[in-house]
Amino acid sequence: MQMFTRTLEQAKRFVGGVQDLTMITLRVIVRLFYPPWYFRETLEQMHFVGIGSLGLIVLTGVFAGQGMALQFSYELGAFGSKDYLGTVMTNAIVRVLGPVLASMMVAARVGAGITAEIGAMKTTHQIEALESFGIDPLKKLCVPRFVALITMVPLLTIVCDVVSITGGWIIAKYVSHVSTTIYWAAVKDRLIFGNIFVGIVKPFVFATIVAAVSFANGFAVTGGTKGVGRYTTRSVMISSISILFGDFFMTKVLFGMLGWSF
Q: Total domain count for the chain?
C-alpha cells in the first residue's frame, strides 16, 4: 500500500511539473508579441549563449566526432566497408549527435546559469522589486533568454555538426586511410533534405526544453543560497533527461513525417 501511495505521489509531482513547464513556456511565448522590447538584453543573452558556448561546442564536437569515427571505422573495417565511413558519420551526427550534444552542453552551461541567476534574484527579493516597479519579470528576464536560446542553439548545432564531421575526416584520413575525396563525397551525398530537416527541427525543440526547465526551476527556488544550488543541479538533470527523451520521440515523429520506415 505504501509503495502504491509513493508511486501515486510521484506521478502527481510529475504531472504537476509537466504542467508548470507547459504553462511557463506558453506565458513566455505570448509575451514575445507585445512591448516593451528589451533589445539590449536580448543581444547580451545571444552573445552569452552563442559566443560564450562556441569554444565548448567546438571542443566537444571535434573529440566526439573523432571517437565515433574510430569506432565506426573499426566496425566497418571488419566488413571491408570503410569507404562508407562518411555516410555513417553524416547520418549519425546530423540526425542525432549534433543536436543532442550541442543542446546538452548549452543546458549544462547556460541553463544552469539561468536557473541560478533567477533563483538568486528570487531569494534576494529582486523579483518582487521588479513587480513593485510595474515590470513583468517574465518579460524582462525570460523573453530575452528564450529568444537567445531558440536563435543560438540551432546555430551552435550547425557548428557542432561541421566540427564533428571534420573530426571524423581526420580519423578517416590519418588513421583509417580513407580517401579524402571518398569521405567528403559521402558526406555531400547524405546532406539531403530529410537529414537537414531533422537536424534543424530538433534544436528548436531542445532549446525550448532548456528554457522552460531553467525558468521553472529558477522561479521555484526556495531555501536561500542552498536552494539555489539544489534547483540549479535539478535544472541541468531534468534538461538533460528531457533532451534524451525528446530525441527519441522526435526521431519517431520526424521519420514518420518523412516517410522513413524503421
A: 1
Whether residue 121 is contained in a domain is answered as yes
Q: What is the pLDDT of residue 1?
A: 62
Print the domain residue range for 254. Answer: 41-258
What are 204's three cell numbers? Answer: 528548436
**CB-side exposure of 238: number of CA atoms within 13 Å?**
23
DSSP string, 226-238: HHHHHHHHHHHHH
pTM, entire model? 0.91
**Per the domain annotation, does 185 fall within a domain?**
yes
Neighbours of 148 (CB within 10 A): 24
- Residue 110 gets which letter from DSSP? I
Cell numbers that stand for 193 in this block: 533534405
Q: Which residue has the cell 552573445?
A: 47
Average pLDDT, the chain: 90
Contact present, 25 and 208 (Cβ < 8 Å): yes
- Please report whether residue 34 resides in a domain: no
Q: Which long-range contacts (CB under 8 A, 24 or more apart) does 241-246 make?
A: 242/209, 242/213, 243/100, 243/103, 243/104, 243/107, 243/206, 243/209, 243/210, 244/100, 246/202, 246/205, 246/206, 246/209
pLDDT at res. 262: 60
Looking at residue 175, the DSSP 8-state letter turns out to be: T
Distance CA 127, CA 118 (A): 8
Q: Is 104 helix (H, G, I), strand (E, B) or coil?
A: helix
Q: Is residue 218 part of a domain?
A: yes
Q: What distance in Å separates the CA atoms of residue 237 and residue 108, rounded to the nearest whole number? A: 9
- 35 backbone dihedrals φ, ψ, rounded to 5°: -70, 170
